[in-house]
Design goal:
23 strands, five-stranded mixed sheet, single chain, alpha+beta, binds zinc ion
Length: 693
Amino acid sequence: METNSKISAKHLKRTAYLYVRQSTVRQVFENTESTKRQYELKQRAIALGWPAERIEVIDTDLGQSASTAVDRQGFQKLVAEVGLGWAGIVMGLEVSRLARNSMDWHRLIEICALTNTLILDEDGIYDPTDFNDRLLLGLKGTMSEAETHLLTARLRGGLLNKARRGELRCQLPVGLVYDAQGQVILDPDSQVQASLHLLFETFFRTATAHRTARHFRDQGLLFPRRILSGADKGKLIWGPLAVKRVLLVLHNPRYAGAYAWGRGHWETQTNGKKKWQLLPRDRWQVLIVDAHPGYISWQQYEQIDQRLRQNAMAYGIDRRHGPAREGPALLQGRVVCGICGNRMTVRYHRRGDGLVPDYWCNRNYMEHGAPICQKIPGASIDAAVGKLLLEAMTPMAIEVSLAVQQEIQAQLDEADRLRHKQVERARYEADYARRRYMKVDPENRLVADSLEAEWNEKLRAMAQAQDDYQRKRDADRKVLAEDQRNRLFSLVQDFPAIWKDPKTPYRERKRMVALLIEDVTLLKAEQIIVQARFRGGATTTLKLPLPLNAWQGRKTAKHVLAKMDELLNEFTDAQVADRLNKQGLKTGAGGSFTAEKVRWVRYANGMKSYAQRLKESGMLTSQQMGAQFGVSEPTVINWRKKGLIQGRRCDDRNQWVYFPPSRALHIHQKNKKTVDHRPSDQKSLETTVGGAV
Ligand SMILES: [Zn+2]
């Protein structure tokens, strides 16, 4: 037996603790070694005089690498045992690593000193009551803490050095592969290459990631992707090209033949979770341009980069940074598209002084470049849902609905029992199929195969039944919990007053909506169908007329249109405007009429002009008249001025139309002697009336 002056009989009567811990950093270097070394340590303790049965191994921290003692049960247990004076000696590989930071470590030394416990590692035995040993142990602890940092840095440093030389092999994006010599080359698969070339070409043509994705979708083209982990690792699969993937490809410098490393880092978010964050290019750790062949040039890569940044400014950031939570859209975050079932987003547009919400379904657009599903003006929907809430939120209504709910609950329990029976049945059948399969002679392949297929089928049916059961059960469970019910009752007392108060902030309104409404499904057809689903499962469907758009909102009133139509039988646009104004009639926007406005309203409502109406009644233009008599147009006009033929001024630019020759002559003779001194405007009108009869 080995003897050591520091070890007394008192020590040997107590237990020896062997503390085993493998942190991640240690595992990297010594994983294979450590078991052997621990065994040696144990042998050492035996040699020093501890019986094997009094050597206790504490290894509950195995595989953990927490940096404080709080997270490590094993270490705390060790401290407790030492504190109780049960430990004669504490052993560990490089014992200073017993604790991961020096505070823990100094505490352990302190306690060891108080309880006269020895410490042993591969370097030797320490007695913490001895000043020199204590100094040494303290130093070891400090060193150890520093080493944790050093090791991490060294590990990363090794990688970094390799990366600096462009030698660190990284996961290559699809379309690039390592050849047998470890050089990066374009994927020899020509279809993969073609897909990438097409992606870049399409982007250069269309300039946006959305349109690129849409092109692929419209053409029915798939894009390759490599499975990064699992049993099928490295396998190539083809799928639709999402906008997100287009962006990943466009942002990846490796497609430009550049070696880049350290493009991102892990950032701790406010919720404590870590998120991988890409860094701006000047903060990348390594960038080697022209390191290997690529699909585009570095110059093109930079062009793309610039274009994407412009796009982001134009489409994304500015718009999205609108008034999100503070905005007036009441149903924000709880609107579901009635066409595709995705959540709809809110966008605001300015009308007058305020912001007006629109509900957009653009998920398919964002992800696949597909057209926007639907876009619905939100103001009238918000108003209708607000009204619905006011109606629903009377104490009486709540009382009734809760009573009904209890009734429903009882029925649901019954339904639940029945559904569960179906699951049991499916399970029994699957089990039966399994037993049949197990019994068959494996030599009899045909029977075995068909039985296996049947077994699989039954398994599927069982999974389906379980799924159905769980889903329906979850849906049933969505009835109100007790505390929700109480909050609802207190809310209902004050609700109308708060809701109607214009000072109530949008945020509060939204909170109230959230408490009452699960979601609202919108569908724009001939009407807007609004289906509100209340918490607790009740639904209400509203039908709203399609709101008028800006132009329709300024539409001319119906009775004004009728009057205009009537006047156009006899008057030109300017004359109609004049007469409408004299009657005090207004345009849709509330102003007075001009010839220009009458013409615009005519076009918009498909009304024929005075000239068209006259021509359709058989009157001829001066050109047509000239052709009839074999004379020139000026001659026709001259005749009219002399009163030889009769016509009417049909527009405000002094164009005339004439009665066809037979009638013209007839009228000519009838009115021959009449001399008219009235203004020309009136004159033609009167002649018209006289002549038409
Ligand atoms: Zn949709």
